[in-house]
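Appendix B, Record 12. Input sequence as logged:
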Amino acid sequence: MGPLIAPVVEELGWHPVEDAGAAGVARRVAVEAAQRLGFEPQRLGELTIVVTEMASNLYKHADRGRIGIRCLRDGGLGAVELVAIDEGPGMADVVLSAQDGHSTAGTLGIGLGAIARLSNRADGYSRPGRGTVLTAQLWPGAATPAQVAAEGLSRPLTGERVCGDRFAVRPHDDGLLLMVADGLGHGPLAAAAAAAAADVFLASSLTAPAAIVEHLHKTISYTRGAAVSVARLAGTAVQFAGLGNVAGAIAWPNGDRRGMVSMPGIVGHQMRQVREFEYQMDADAVLIMHSDGVSERWNLGNYPGLPRRAPLTVAATLLRDSGQRRDDACVLVAKASL
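Logged structural output:
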C-alpha cells in the first residue's frame, strides 16, 4: 500500500470503561466495523485481543477510562483505530510498560505488549498522576502504512450521541489542507452542518484557505451553519483563514505559541469578509486547530515529550485535558515533518 496521507475518518463513538463488562460493548463495535471492512477471521481475533487488553488495562489501572473507536478509509482499504484515554494514575515510562512481563499490579504484564505486537501502529503518552493515552491502528494485512502527518479527534458533549464538530484533511500537491468545523449548537442538526462542511471541503479542488471558506459559505447555507477554519500546510509555511470561533495556533514544545486570526461570522449565514493570513513554523512546532469546546488554556510546555508523539496522541491528550464536557469538542494536529 502506498503512503497513507489523509484517510477519511468515521467516528464510531466513545465507550466508558467503568466495570469488567464494559469491554464487551467496545469489542462488539470494533469487530462489527472490522467485518464491514473485510477483516479475515485471524485479524478479527487479533483485533478482539487488542480491544480487550485496552479495556482491561483501563478497568484495572485507570480512572475515568474511555475507548474511542473509528474507521479509517484510504481508497478501497479500511482500518479500525482505537484511542484509549484515562485520567490517572499514569505511567513513568510507556515504553517499559509495554514490554512483556512488566507489571505494576502483580499481573502477567502482557497487555500493552500484545497491543504493540498486534497493531500495525501503536503509540502512547503518559505522565505520572496525569493519565495515559494509548492508540492502536489495525489494518487487514501486515503492511504498515506511512505515518499520517495530520490527525484529529472529536467527541460529543455529555448526553449526546452525535458530535456537532468535525475535522477533515486532504492532500494537495505540496502539503496538506486542514479543516475544523463547529456546527451551530449541538445534536443532529449541528452534526449535519459540520458534516456538510467536511463533505464540500473534501470534494473541492480549491487550495487557498480563504477561497475554500468562501466556497463553503455559498454551499452549506441550507444548514444551520458552522464556525469553520481552514489551513494550508506546505513544508513550514502555513496559510490560515476562518470564520467564527474555531481556534488555530502554532505551538512549540517549550510552551510558546502563536495564535492565528479568524474573522467573526458563521459560514453559511453571516460573512462580512474572509481574510487569509500567513505564518511560519519549524520542525519542532505543531499546528493545532480546535473548536471552542476545547479550552485555549492548554500549554504544550506542561507535557514533556508530547510534541514528538504522533499527531493523534497529541490531539487525544489535549482533548482529554482541555475538552469541556458541556460542549462538543474537536482537536486537529498537524506537523511539518515526522
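The helical segments are 22-36, 41-61, 94-97, 111-118, 187-203, 209-219, 311-322.
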